[in-house]
Amino acid sequence: MALEIRRNALLDPEIRRADNHALVLLRGELDSSTAGQLYEQLSELTRDGVVHVALDLSELEFMDSTGLSVVVAEHKRTTASGGELVLLSPQSQVLRMFEMTGLTDVLHILEDGAGERGPEEASGQAGVT
Questions:
Q1: What percentage of the chain reaches a pLDDT higher than 70?
Q2: What value does the mean pLDDT take over residues 48-69?
Q3: DSSP 42-83
């Protein structure tokens, strides 16, 4: 008898854009099997001139160190472009990853949700051009 482990490792990002702002809603799991997909989507936003990014983490169920590295890379990218990365409403287990790594002192994390707002309001840049 073989042990079979099934895990739903899907990540379902939804991207809402307005000018140089983006709100990225993440659903599912951000791990080694899905991090590349998100990294490429965020890179595409940068190539398109998006410098203010808000990641809504309210429906992100799991994140490992590979996912964490994608978030850090996006933070570096937006900062280097004169923009900002804002993390919205992380679930407790995801927030714990940021706390354990000391990134709560580096990243802009808002525990109060902004997922229903538009990209400009969620990234804290309403009216900024």
A1: 80
A2: 97
A3: HHHHHHTT--EEEEEEEEEEEE-HHHHHHHHHHHHHHHHTT-
